[in-house]
UniProtKB/TrEMBL annotation:
This is Uncharacterized protein. It is found in: Cell membrane. It comes from the Bacteria. Pfam families: Virul_fac_BrkB. Keywords: Cell membrane, Membrane, Transmembrane, Transmembrane helix.
Length: 285
């Protein structure tokens, strides 16, 4: 029995990897990475326009911080200056053609995730393309409003706390906990986003227990990859500068997103391997 407990997860992991290779997982991951990088800046442009309705630039800045919070500092650092230039540029009002195009181009990143998940879960998409695009645009809009709402809490949180402390001095002892909680928001957003993406984005429906293994493995491997990639860049970042010159920051981000997307697609393949094993066990019984 103990040996079986060790070999069973290993067999599922191997089955998932073989399915990942068979379904062109490497190519799909490359497509997701490039689409995500191309969608990042249009999304931030839209968020900047949306934040303008609240009359503050801090909201857009906080959204960018939330998006990059889970990235290694060696990756987010070089690209943060480019993001800052995007956020500090005037892009007009929300209801403009530019903002509309920004939303449309941002939805391409969602579509790339859908393609990868459909391949991994071995399902065929039967919904019309225009409906899928509208759904992706809906995800972008919900994500943008959600990120702005979270950023609003982060911006207003310290101000509200400082106003309450004179009235309730005992709150001062929770200041460190509140700071830690602010940084934990990025992790919570990541877990919720992964769960919703696996459950609702691809064709068909899956239960939470069917997608839980892939989500857990994805998060764990993302954490390990982030640490290892950060250490690698601390030693060899100059290699990217010498090879790509002014494009070094974009290439570093693209490589990081490629490995992140590879893990994401593998997580879906792992879920499908678990589902396949469960279905086989039910058939045998």
């Amino acid at each position: 029995m103990p040996l079986r407990l060790l070999t069973f997860p290993a067999r599922i992991a191997i089955d998932a990897f073989m399915a990942f290779v068979r379904d062109d997982g490497w190519a799909i991951a490359s497509h997701i990475a490039l689409s995500t990088l191309m969608s990042l800046f249009p999304f931030l442009i839209f968020v900047t326009a949306l934040s303008g309705f609240f009359g503050t630039q801090d909201l857009a800045d906080q959204v960018a911080l939330l998006l990059l919070e889970a990235w290694p500092e060696e990756v987010s650092g070089p690209i943060s200056s480019e993001i800052s230039s995007v956020l500090t540029t005037s892009h007009g009002g929300l209801l403009t053609i530019g903002a509309g195009l920004a939303v449309y181009f941002s939805s391409s990143g969602i579509e790339s995730l859908r393609i990868g998940l459909n391949r991994s879960y071995e399902v065929v998409e039967t919904r019309p393309w225009w409906l899928l695009r509208l759904e992706s645009i809906g995800y972008v809009l919900v994500g943008a409003f959600g990120m702005v709402a979270l950023a609003l809490l982060i911006v207003l949180g310290p101000l509200i706390f400082d106003r309450l402390v004179p009235w309730f001095p005992n709150l001062r002892q929770f200041e460190v906990s509140l700071t830690v909680a602010r940084f934990g928001i990025a992790s919570i957003v990541l877990v919720v986003a992964l769960t919703l993406i696996h459950k609702w984005l691809p064709a068909g429906r899956r239960t939470l227990d069917e997608i839980a293994p892939g989500v857990a493995v994805t998060l764990a491997m993302w954490l390990i990859t982030g640490v290892l990639f950060g250490r690698y860049l601390s030693e060899f970042a100059s290699t990217y500068v010498s090879m790509y010159a002014g494009l070094a920051s974009a290439m570093i981000a693209l490589v990081f997103l490629y490995w992140t997307a590879t893990i994401f697609v593998y997580g879906a393949a792992l879920n499908q391997a678990v589902i396949r094993r469960r279905n086989a066990a039910r058939t045998d019984s």
